[in-house]
TrEMBL record:
InterPro entries: Ig-like_fold, Integrin_alpha_N, RGI_lyase, RGL11, RGL11_C. This is Rhamnogalacturonan lyase. One of its GO terms (molecular function) is lyase activity. Pfam families: RGI_lyase (PF18370), RGL11_C (PF21348). Keywords: Lyase. Residues 137-265, 273-661 form the Rhamnogalacturonan lyase family 11 C-terminal domain. The keyword Lyase applies. It comes from Gilvimarinus xylanilyticus. Residues 53-121 form the Rhamnogalacturonan I lyase beta-sheet domain.
Amino acid sequence: MRIPVKKSSEATLKRKGAGALVCGLSLAVAACSSGPESAERQSSSTQVYSGARQLEQLDRGLIAVPADEGVLVSWRKLQGDSDQLSLSLYRGGELIAEQAVSQSTNFLDRQGSAGTTYELRSNGQVLASVTAWETPYLNLPIDQPKDRTTPDGERYSYTANDASVGDLNGDGRYEIVLKWDPTNAKDNSQGGYTGNALIDAYTLEGERLWRIDMGRNIRAGAHYTQFMVYDFDGDGRAEIAMKTADGTVDGEGKIIGDPKANWVSGEQKQEVRDRTGSQVTSDGRYIGNLKGRILSGPEYFSVFEGATGRELDTVAYIPQRAPGDDNPSSEQMKKIWGDGYANRSERYLAGVAYLDGERASAVMARGYYERSVIAAYDFRDGAISTRWVFDSAAPGVPDHFGGQGNHQLSVADVDRDGKDEIIYGAMALDDDGSPKWTTALGHGDAMHVSDLDPSRPGLELFGVYESVRRNGGIGSAVIDAEDGTVLWSKSAEKDNGRGLAADIDPRHPGAEVWALNAPELFNIKGEPVSPQRPRQVNFAIWWDGDPLRELLDGTTVYKWNWNTGTSEPILETEGTSSNNGTKANPALSADILGDWREEVIFRTEDNQSLRIYSTPIATDISLTTLMHNSQYRLSVAWQNTSYNQPPHLDYDVGEKVKSAKQ
């Protein structure tokens, strides 16, 4: 099923329903600014470009990891490296390897040990130096906040939660941006006070650069604060973009908005429509607790300087709770979002996209169960401007663009025009914010967008769906990401809460897919290839050096054994914890150091450190750093959004390796 959209109708869309939440205009897609002029699109000599896209200027990311038979030393192959580029590796001043980056970007030094020093050189020039790790991980001390107390006397502490990376100071190395969640963080369905969410930045040596306190008027929980770390203005240094409120304190101590404002609801009860988080009365009504919810007050969108945490610019947050109204009544909210107690209206998503094909924009969204409003922002020359806003409830928007959002979004150039589209669960927006397609399959908890089927042109989407009673009983599906055509689907009788797509079996081209609602493992054509799927359905990771992806679940990496139909652990960490309950995701998984394989970051059980694990396994595959693949890099940026998903490339690794050998 797919519902096509006629482009000719987009410019004349009129407002309907409770009001279009679009910059005060009455268009379903409002172009609130013309975007950056060509004169502003100045390339920098410090930047790398993939086509027209500005990418990060990274160093070689040299690391040396203890291995079973010595030390594995690895480094980055960068976008723009010639196949003839040869790099030399020295141990203690002695040449031990000279390799073309097209052939290898790692070396197993059998004479190396913890504390051994290495240098990477090119034509005699030292590019990087490193000392071999003492442990299988890099330990980064972090500064756990002190315990605090809620207005009703509840004491809470803090746990390290989701993380992201960006080059905050322009030195070619990643820094880590970390969210601290209070132990009383809440789901939107739950009433109750929460502590303030905090955002820290750390160097890879564990030096804290700054802390942003989101303040009491931003509730803590997985659906509230999505923080985008990216170089939005093109100066070679990443910024942090996120929703803020009165009382947010930046990294230099400046307070945004009214420092005395308190928009947190007190002890109040209201009849609600959702059983989850509610009390059930004797006559079957659901009563929800409004305590701790944010139902009114101004909302902001802010961009912070990556190096200092200093607020650079703040504007009113789009989309608002109600058109032109920060303080709507419960009935207004119910009419706009589907409830009046901030369950549906306060579910936020965020991403980063190259909407003009050259410079990155921030994408901020609100709502996915019923109404969805999505805004694209540019940050240029120190100022925020709105590029466009989409409202699923505006007139002229075809049916079934509301209620299609997931607990995450994805960003990819699905039509291969050089500009990114926003895949918002079961629907997609074009680069200009216009509706592109919808499958009308409804809300889901997980999706994966990549070249899942290399026998077909373009990208595919694998998604799992919750609304099986309303979508024809479809629990999972593979979809053409360009036009929304459902290529095949599997039925379900109830909410299908988790699913994964990754190439884990070399006997079948492309990815395999599996979901909680079915016992089998399927190939990308929908054919069962194993009666038993992996039990792991959360994350995937490139770890052991072959083109296949491994499984990351909790604090363990597994290898799928396609002969026995079982998952075998190949990395078991100790003293670490995963995040977000049954989602069991790491703080971050991404290619942030060394060669193209991915690192994984876990918090320690005592929340005193982050640990970065990197593979100790040598490989004969050489790929450009995954972070210079635009879709993958953007996936890392949105990984912290709501229900975290693993990052995906826009190509199939197996096919890439095969073509390189021909």
